[in-house]
Amino acid sequence: MSDGLTEAERADRRRGLRRILLILGVFFVFVQVNRSGGGVLAGYLGAERGLSPTDIGTVMGAMFFASAAAQLPTGILFDRIGPTRTLLVSGLVALAGIVVFALATETWSLVAGRVAIGLGHGGIITAVYLIAMGWAPSDRVGQATATLVGVAGGIGGVLATTPLAMALEHIGIQGSFLALAAMTALLMVAIRLLVRDGPVAAAGGGETGPRETLGESIRGLFEVMRMPELRRIFVMGICFTAPFMTIGGLWAGPYFAEVQGLSRAEASIALLLLVIALHLGTYGYGVLDRIARSRRRVVLTGVAIEVVCLGVLAAWPAAPLPVAGLLLFVFSCAAPLFVILAAHARRFVPQRRAGRAITCISLMGLTGVFVLQTGTGALIDMVQVAGGTPETGYRLVFATVMAVLVVTGVVYAGQSEGPVNQA
C-alpha cells in the first residue's frame, strides 16, 4: 500500500474507525428521530393539537430552515476547530431545542424548539463524513459514511415511525421528547470522551489550532461558494434530501391516511417501510460511490427514477395501495444523493476546505427542504379552502417535487466529473 503506514498502524486505524462509527452511529439514531419523525408528528399535531397543514409545514420545515442557516458558520467551524468539537458545541443547542419542543404548548414554541434542533443537528452528516476522512482510506470514506447513515439512520428512521407513534399515543410529546433529550445527552458525553477527528488527534499530537485566521476562513468560504466547478453540484444539492423529506418525511403519512384510507397505526407502518427504503438506498449509493466510473451518471439515474415514480403518482394519486406503496418505496430508495454529491464536490477542493464545500451542499439541500415543506403545505391548504379533494392536493405535492427534480437534474447534467487524479 502507498499510505506509508505499517500493518499495525493500519489495524489500529481500523479499530479506531469501528469504535467511532459505532458511537456516532448510536448518536445519529437519536438525531434521525427528529429528522424523520415529521410524517408521524404531522398526523399527531393535526389530530391532537388542531394545527392546519400550513402550520404543520411551518413547524416541521423550521428545523430544516434553521439547519440551512447553520451550514455556513458550521462549515467554518469544521475547518477551524474540527468536526468533533463542532459536533459537541452544536449538540448543546440541539439538546436545548429538544427540551423546548417537548415542553411546547403553542405553535410558536414548537417552531422555536425545531429551530434550535435544526441549528444544532444540521451538520451531523458532514461531521460524520469529515471524521471518516480522518480515519478511513480515501477510497472508503464514502462507503463508511453511507454505511453509518444507512444503518444508524435506518434504525432511527424506524424509531421515528411506529415506535414514535406509540410513544406519542401513550406518553405524549413531552414524555417522548424528554426521553429523547436524555439519550442524546448521554451520547454527547460518549462522543466527548471517545471520539477524535483522526489518529493523530487521538494520540494528542494533532490538535494544534487552526491554520487560518477567522478572516481567512470566511474568505475561503466565499471562494468555495464562487467556484464555477461546484455551481452545478450546489444546484443539485437542493434535492439531496428535500424530495424525500417533503414526501416521505412529511406528507406521506397524511397521504396514506386521507387518500389510501389507512389508520394512523397502519400509516406509520407504511412510513417505516419508506424509511427502510431510504436507508437501503443510502447504503447502496455508498457502494456505488466506490465502484461507479461516473458519479454524475449515478446521480442522474437516481433523479430519473424519482421523477418517474412521482410522475405516475402525480397523474394517478389514488392508485391502489400496492401500486402507490411500491412507487414510494422505489422513490425512497433513489432519494438519498448526499454521499455521491459530497464525494463529487470533494474532487474539486483541498482537504482543508472540504468542510466548507460539503456544508454548502447541505445549505442548498436544507433550504430546499424548508421551501418545499412549507410550499407544499400551502398548496394543500389552498386546495382545502377551494373545496378540492385530498387527491388534488397530493397530486400538486407530487408534481411540485417532480418539477424541482427535473430542473435541478437538467442543470447538474452539465457538471464535469472532476480531476481524474482526485478520489
**What name does CATH use for the topology?**
Growth Hormone, Chain: A
Q: Number of DSSP helices? A: 18
Helix content: over 70%
Tell me the name of the CATH homologous superfamily: MFS general substrate transporter like domains
Highest CATH level, the class? Mainly Alpha
Low-confidence stretches: 201-210
The tally of domains stands at 1
Order of helices and strands: HHHHHHHHHHHHHHHHHH
Large-scale geometry: globular
Secondary structure tally: strands: 0
Percent of sequence in beta strands: under 5%
User: Helix/strand/pairing class, anyone?
Assistant: mainly alpha
Q: How is the quaternary structure best described?
A: single chain
Which radius of gyration do the C-alpha atoms yield? 21 Å
CATH architecture: Up-down Bundle
Distance between the termini: 16 Å
Description of the structure:
By secondary structure, the protein is an all-alpha fold. It has a single domain (12-197, 215-412), classed as Growth Hormone, Chain: A (Up-down Bundle). 80% of the residues lie in helices and 0% in strands. It has 18 helices and no strands. The chain has helices spanning 7-36, 38-48, 53-81, 83-103, 107-121, 124-135, 141-159, 162-194, 199-202, 214-226, 231-237, 242-258, 264-291, 295-315, 321-334, 338-346, 354-385, 390-412. The chain is globular and about 65 Å long.
What is the structure about, briefly put?
By secondary structure, the protein is mainly α. It contains 18 helices and no strands. The chain is globular, with a radius of gyration of 21 Å.
